[in-house]
Amino acid sequence: MSLKNFSFNVIQKDGFARLGQIQTHRGNIDTPVFMPVGTQATVKGIDQKILSNQINSKIILSNTYHLYLRPGTRVIKKAGGIHKFMNWDKLILTDSGGFQVYSLSNSRKISEKGVIFQSHIDGSKHLLTPESVIEIQREIGADVIMAFDECPPYPCKFQYVKDSMKLTHRWLDRCIKKHNNSPFLYNNKQYLFPIIQGGVYNDLRKESADFVSSRFAEGYAIGGLSVGEPDEEMYKVSDLVCSILPSDKPRYLMGVGTPVNLLENISNGVDMFDCVIPTRNGRNGMLFTFEGIINIKNKKWENDFSKIQDKHDKDSNNLYSKAYLRHLFMANEILGKQIATIHNLNFYNSLLKIARDKILIGEFASWKNKIVKKLNTRI
Predict the structure, then answer these.
(1) Using one digit for the tens of pLDDT, what is the confidence trace for 331-368?
(2) Structural class in CATH, domain 31-275
(3) Three-state DSSP string of 204-273
(4) pTM higher than 0.85, yes or no?
(5) What is the set of active-site residues?
(6) Domain boundaries, the chain
């Protein structure tokens, strides 16, 4: 396999929104892009053939913490890396496990060295350090890997967030050193994205963005959001950070978000997103459409034999009626969860395809301002 370097080109700007393309040895990715979450080497309920051919995903996200615990890197190495293990030949990004440090706050201890945490599977104790996280991701074999960070909660006092940010910066330098001194496996070059922290404090976010920008990387991530802060705080942070980050590198907003969140952050200059919302909400019967949000379990859909997709969503799964899908959910049939998940992922892709088209012709802002009013409506 040719080890073509990771590159990013901005094709067109509309305000601060950017149409771009990431070029890699595993194919090109048009941005802004949404990455489905496949935490445990699977996007829940969706096999890789559907993910590639029907949903047309070019990149997915998996999780270092979960894969480290199960099945473990020994199994993944024996398979020849994560791509062969899960039979996926497109890009994979692995989160470093920093968010799990946040979510496991009752069963972990943070120090300068790293994080001691208790497994949610069997209660065993483990130490994750910046060095071990890079090594685990190397053995997993993802294409884009993330630096180890601490994600502080919201709300959180200024001094704690400041100390946490400084620790994340020190950990970043250790991650970079380990990464630079580690030969890649599986004939697969890896690209390290550092993570900006700082909570909702403007001066800390500026300090973190300046520090992280001073370290060369193929892309930069904005972490520590989507942890309970109001949307307006999120937008304020992404706007500030994007104004500081290098303009020739992709910007990845971690763990975000709703359709409206995506569009508002695109308008600030964000290029990459991941979130469990379309898949998790789909499994619970919530469907996103261009006309608003459908709770398919609602009795109002019992005799509605119109197709699930609306007229704008040409790429979605248009085989089934709302009444049929409601029946599947009421009967607790697995197929219902799969249909809803496929629909939502196709909707997210369709939404961002339109966003890219609007940026290209200079109509993104006017289109976005109209459509966000509908996207949050319950129908």
Answers:
(1) 999 999 999 999 999 999 999 999 999 999 999 999 99
(2) alpha beta
(3) HHHHHHHHHHCCCCCCEEECCCCCCCCHHHHHHHHHHHHHHCCCCCCEEECCCCCHHHHHHHHCCCCCEE
(4) yes
(5) 95, 274
(6) 31-275, 282-375
